[in-house]
Amino acid sequence: MKGFYWLRRRIEIFKNLRGAQERKLFLQALFLALFMPLLLRLRLTTLMRYFEPQTLAEPPGSSAERQGQVVLWALEFARPLVRSGCLVRGLTLYGSLRRVGWNISLCFGVAPWKQGFTGHCWLTREGRPFLEPEGEGPGFSPVLQFPRKGVGLAE
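Structure (tokenized):
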């Protein structure tokens, strides 16, 4: 029965979704994640403009954490078709949550690693890491952050 874990987990994910709003967000995030390799071919400014909502107002209903969890379930559901790295995770979360109206930012940062540097991207909300796995993010120095009035270096 261990071989059917992936099927049981996907059924469990569907059971966790509450209401039409969460199912819609799940499907939007799923399609966004599946098309991310194509979207990453766009200029970064074009991609970020697509993610910007018409208005930013915290949506009624679920909390940002709950809606973020729905997006994370969509990413888990799509594996192995979707990469599991921070770039796809961060852009899918950012795009999905910004489009429904949450005021979050996407940060890109670097940190020293071995003989060079390594990069990471993460979400922030109210100046703190948001939906970030334990132990990720704090050692990275931000170099780029969205949203911006255009693309610029992080302060």
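Strands lie at 105-113, 116-125, 128-130, 141-146. The first strand starts at residue 105 and ends at 113.
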